[in-house]
Design goal:
Layout lengths: L2 H12 L5 H16 L5 H11 L3 H8 L9 H8 L1 H11 L3 H19 L9 H17 L1
Helix pairs in contact: 1-2, 1-7, 2-8, 3-4, 3-5, 4-7, 5-7, 6-7
Length: about 140
């Protein structure tokens, strides 16, 4: 199974009670985080999480061991309330459910994007690949 198949499966697992459009929206938005110039890609997202006091959790997501969990409130603190609210509206769910789904998905995506236990120096390739995958999903 490819990295992208794995990431898409992770997104689909997060919202078993929601329609496929909500799952695709969640996946597209999370992938967009890693492509966002505002966020700064994977490195920028991890920096934001570290600055929000999630240093131990971030280290576990990037490392090879078990991923430490975060709460919806913690991930909302990293991503911002307006970002989470926008995702919730697009998905057709409440903000708490969107935050919870993000809190489950973001650590797993970071884990899959850092299989060697470190952030790749070739972050541009990862960002371009994720952008292409996101575009493919939008065209389906």
């Amino acid at each position: 199974m490819s990295l992208f198949d794995t990431l898409l499966d992770l997104a689909k697992e997060q919202l078993t009670d929601y329609p496929p459009s909500a799952k695709n929206t969640l996946f597209e938005e999370v992938m967009g985080l890693f492509n966002s110039t505002e966020v700064g890609g994977l490195s920028g997202l991890l920096e934001k999480a570290n600055n929000a006091g999630l240093t131990e959790q971030v280290a576990s997501w990037v490392g090879r061991g078990e991923n430490l969990s975060v709460t919806g409130e913690q991930i909302q603190g990293v991503l911002g309330s307006s970002f989470v609210q926008t995702i919730a509206e697009k998905m057709g769910v409440n903000t708490a459910d969107a935050a919870k789904s993000l809190a489950n998905l973001v650590p797993q995506v970071v884990d899959k994007l850092t299989p060697e236990g470190q952030v790749s120096k070739d972050n541009d390739f990862v960002q371009l690949s994720l952008a292409g995958l996101t575009q493919l999903l939008k065209n389906k």
